[in-house]
Specification:
The protein is of the alpha/beta class. The chain has 2 domains: about 5-105 and about 210-240, Rossmann fold; about 105-210, 2-Layer Sandwich (Dihydrodipicolinate Reductase, domain 2), CATH 3.30.360.10. Helix content is about 35%, strand content about 25%. The chain is built from 6 helices and 11 strands. The strands form 2 sheets. It has a 6-stranded parallel sheet, sandwiched between helices. It has a 5-stranded mixed sheet with strand order 7-8-6-9-10.
């Protein structure tokens, strides 16, 4: 018998892609499609909740799934380490699983891992991320996660050098890393991590040019993983061996 998935935000761009991939996965079916305004009692009876809603709604979806003892896979942006820490005790008390994926693209995960690996060798690190103008939150969840990984990798070296951080034009700092967000038409997703040292710089760039093709492999990995997870996990790096593990 197939595992029943309740997909929240299933009519949005990401939700539509997730729903299509789940329907192609052996042993899974999308049993219910909820919008961001649906009554969360519709989660009852699901084997797994997948959240692709909005940052404003997502916390209620996560809490509703945990309260029902249902594992949840979260693809919604806006889940920083601080925000995840608020629901961790709930997940542990309920003995469920919550998997947070800032970006389902394998290339994006590799880019963040490479940035974290390089960060201890450069005093200056800044992130420039761009998404379509309809994205309602900034900085992106991917940029926040990348900055958190960079900060963790630089634990011994300390914060990055970010002069004039008090000026608003210098970006929003996450883990001491300035993040600059662009929202413009014609863009799907782009992230640049610029690492600078004396006499040189290294730029790591990831572009998403087709979200359906880019996200599908990661979704295929994340859905079965989330079904059996116990505890809190952050990032696709928990499902593929790229030499780092999430600090969740």
């Amino acid at each position: 018998m197939s595992k029943k998935v309740a997909l929240v935000g299933g009519t949005g761009k990401l939700g539509t892609i997730i729903g299509r991939v789940i329907d192609e996965l052996e042993g899974f079916e999308v049993a219910r499609v909820l919008t961001s305004s649906s009554d969360l009692s519709e989660l009852d009876g699901a084997d797994l909740v997948v959240d692709a809603s909005t940052p404003q709604v997502s916390v209620d979806v996560v809490r509703a799934a945990i309260d029902r003892g249902i594992n949840i896979l979260v693809g919604t942006s806006g889940w920083s380490a601080e925000r995840i820490a608020l629901v961790r005790p709930l997940v542990e008390a309920a003995e469920t699983g919550a998997v947070f994926i800032p970006n389902f693209s394998l290339g994006s995960v590799l880019g963040s891992a490479l940035a974290a690996a390089a960060a201890p060798f450069f005093a200056s690190v800044e992130i420039v991320e761009a998404h379509r103008d309809t994205k309602t939150d900034s900085p992106s969840g991917t940029a926040v996660r990348t900055a958190e990984l960079i900060a963790a990798a630089r634990a011994q070296q300390g914060p990055v050098s970010a002069p004039h951080a008090d000026q608003r034009a210098r970006g929003q700092q996450v883990g001491s890393v300035p993040i600059h967000s662009l929202r413009r038409p014609g863009v799907i997703a782009r992230q640049e991590v610029i690492l600078s040292g004396p006499g040189e710089s290294l730029t790591l760039t990831h572009d998403t040019v087709d979200s359906a093709d880019a996200y599908a492999p990661g979704i295929r990995l994340a859905v079965p993983f989330a079904l059996d997870a116990r505890g809190v996990f952050v990032g696709l790096e928990n499902m593929i061996d790229i030499g780092i593990r999430a600090r969740s």
